[in-house]
Design goal:
This protein is α/β, with parallel strands linked by helices and 360 residues long. Helix content is 26%, strand content 25%.
Length: 360
């Protein structure tokens, strides 16, 4: 199969032929239909996070089942599916307490002495987040996918695999905002726009979108933002406090930066909750005024929107098909795999909400 291989940081991905194994007893072979280019992948390309190489990046994907292992009964060939990096075992402490997104049981990967799922010339190609979506096919554990209705367009379904689940999930699952509450979202890329959309669906009374590009702030209005702040010309913390007469009840950081994460905390009112959704680079430390914690202000993380993806994702699909979840507006470009590096350059320049790689 054809795939985009990541060999070292700060270098372009290369399009190469890769061998893919047959499904094991609990594995599913998927023909990839579409995969979104996510900022999380860029963190690895830029060297902010480490992963074994060579590897095939990509994790926001949808496709069609081609083959299933002997013990798989949940899906069959021809089923349409969305993948999710929150692969779960189903019986560890995290799984049985309802936190499947925190499962780290290694049994969902192949054993070290088993043939690799992906290889090239007899050498292992590492699998990224148990998925490796920047390829024509994926071979994954059955607990890394969810079956969806066949009338859902697969290029939009791919976005549900990360951007929607992460952004909407951070709002409704991790933070659990209330109807009428005040919300600020820092960063209006794919995940941030989904957080804004999720806040609107959940009934937030005031939704403040913050970015440095007026073009993205205009899109944020379409997704449900009631107010916008251009952080390149205004102090977002000061302006949020002024607009809300003291601060927001909930803030969400969707960029993955130290400074904006601190801003998310500092723009809270008393008893407010700041949720860091973006991937702050490894090794960086945040600074907050400890005395603010006395005011019942809280700072928390969110892992893939605290999802229950086999429940959440079909619901998000229904929201889209009912016109409530804005996925058409989220896609800025559709590109072939061969233009993947151009897609990442567009992301770096802030020119897109989401580029989606589509396979014929």
């Amino acid at each position: 199969m054809k795939a985009a291989i990541f060999r070292e940081p700060h270098q372009p991905l290369t399009i190469e032929q890769v061998d893919i194994s047959n499904p094991g007893s609990r594995e599913v072979l998927i023909r990839t239909a579409a995969v979104g280019i996510c900022h999380s992948d860029l963190h690895y390309i830029d060297g902010y996070y480490a992963t074994p190489v060579p590897t095939i990046l990509g994790h926001e994907s949808a496709g069609v089942v081609e083959k299933v292992g002997s013990e798989v009964s949940y899906v069959k060939p021809g089923d349409h599916v969305i993948t999710c990096l929150s692969v779960f075992c189903g019986h560890c402490e995290f799984c049985v307490t309802g936190r499947l997104f925190s499962c780290v049981n290694p049994e969902t990967a192949r054993a070290a002495d088993a043939p690799p799922r992906l290889s090239q010339g007899g050498k292992t190609i590492h699998q990224f987040y148990d998925l490796s979506s920047f390829a024509e096919q994926m071979l994954i554990h059955e607990h890394a996918l969810v079956k969806i209705r066949p009338d859902m367009p697969l290029d939009r379904a791919a976005l549900v695999g990360c951007a929607v689940t992460t952004g909407v999930g951070a709002v409704v699952n991790t933070a659990g905002i209330e109807i009428g509450s005040s919300v600020a979202v820092i960063g209006c890329g794919g995940v941030g726009l989904c957080a804004i959309n999720g806040a609107a669906i959940a009934g937030a009374g005031e939704i403040i979108a913050i970015d440095v590009l007026d073009s993205k702030l205009a899109i944020a209005r379409q997704f449900g933002a009631t107010e916008t702040i251009n952080a390149s010309t205004d102090d977002p913390v000061e302006l949020v406090r002024e607009m809300t007469r003291g601060g927001v009840e909930y803030s969400f950081e969707a960029l993955g930066r130290k400074e904006t994460s601190e801003q998310a905390f500092n723009m809270l009112r008393q008893s407010g909750v700041a949720t860091i959704v973006g991937m702050v680079p490894e090794g960086q430390m945040m600074e907050i005024e400890a005395a603010q914690l006395i005011n019942d202000k809280r700072l928390q993380g969110s892992n893939m929107g605290s999802n229950r993806f086999r429940v959440d994702m079909p619901r998000y699909v229904d929201f889209y098909l009912r016109g409530q979840l804005k996925l058409d507006e989220l896609i800025s470009k559709r590109i072939p795999l061969e233009k993947i590096n151009e897609g990442f350059e567009d992301m770096k320049r802030g020119e897109v909400a989401r580029s989606v790689i589509v396979f014929e």
